[in-house]
Amino acid sequence: MLVLAVAAFSVAWWLGLYLAGRDPSDAAMSRAGLGLVSYALALALSVFDGTVVDAVGYVLAGLPALIWAGVLIALLPPEDPYRAPADRVWRWTVLPLGVAELVAAAVVGGWWEPLTAALVLLPLAAALVLVWRSMTRGPVGLRQGVVLLATLLFGLGAVAVLVPFGWLPDGVVLASVGIDLLVLGVVVAVTNALEAGEALGADLRRSAVGAGLAAVVFGGQVGLVSLAVDDGDRAALRALAFGVVAAAIAVVTLASSIQALLDRVAFAGTPDLRSSRAELRDATDALPRRDEGASLAALDDDAFTRLVRDALRNYGDLGKLVSSPLLALPAVDARLAGREGHALDRATELKALLLESIERLRPREAEFGTSEEWRYFNALYFPYVAGIRPYRRQPDLSGLDDVSRRAFDWLRRYVPERTLYNWQNAAARVVARDLRARVD
């Protein structure tokens, strides 16, 4: 029984960490990962006894339903008018109140549990309705159908978790919920990879094999020790088994993030060395995500523009540009002048191409202006090339020249964040048309 529990925990824990770490900037990915991590912790606590353990396990088992409502909202198209307000309501109202409701139900129990199930699943149902409304405006694909079906099954399983009827063993209920969460997590990962023009299989296999080997090597040692101890010490060994396996999988799955943290400590006085190591590390992680079979000429305008938008967003990070399908642009080949070029070389040339396209948006009469004709250039050049972050609470202005400081002040004072986002989308379409001409 312990072996099965540790195995199920390992799969959920690994996939949750993988989703959260693959693209932290993607809300759907990070939230899906958080839901799986919460479910994995609930699985780990299910093999222990105790009032406090049961209460904590109840809260952790109910959290995925709350979190998945946020995942569905994040999966809505960016142009959906309900996405932004629904996300704010989920973030600042639904999630904190839902957690408080779960804690109250775990402490009080009894009649509070059916009420909690209704209140926790209501946001999930509302988010499902929003997704359905969005799907009715266009053709329904296989991925959307899987999301709807798995969410419905997940909702039924969540009811059984929050309101234990006793019809099925707790292990069966948790297993059914886990399968639905795993399916939903994989669908979110596939969606993220397709939207970014990246491959998923190779990177997913590499992470899974590494996590599996780590779990077997380190967890197996605890299992061997458990064979030689008395039954009275088994509880401590169970906790040790879950802790060792969780730590081993986390170290392997989040290796790049952990190395970056260690670099901050070890190379605190050498920022250039840290930056170079981070760039090489990002490039190494991005290589398995490259879709070698992608055809840029076969993409429609919206898909190509989305790739350009992603590349602009990663303009300052050469390592992340390595996974961009835009590396296959004929213009990149031309700039390499017949050289085969490694991934970093191609990313460097892509970065130069993007800068050329941005510079074409610059009016000729001055270094900086705020008129309408400067709109697209300012929206791309200063946030992405100059690296200014006008909406941060404590922005770092060190290293900025006078023109960039003027642009920072203007954006912060007179341009709302949503307006800048819209300008960037429109400017990205102009850049995409420029690059598209080099494909055709």
UniProtKB/TrEMBL annotation:
Q: Spell out the protein name for this chain.
A: Uncharacterized protein
Membrane-spanning intervals of the chain: 55-77, 89-109, 115-133, 145-167, 173-196, 208-229, 235-255
Q: Which UniProt keywords apply?
A: Membrane, Transmembrane, Transmembrane helix
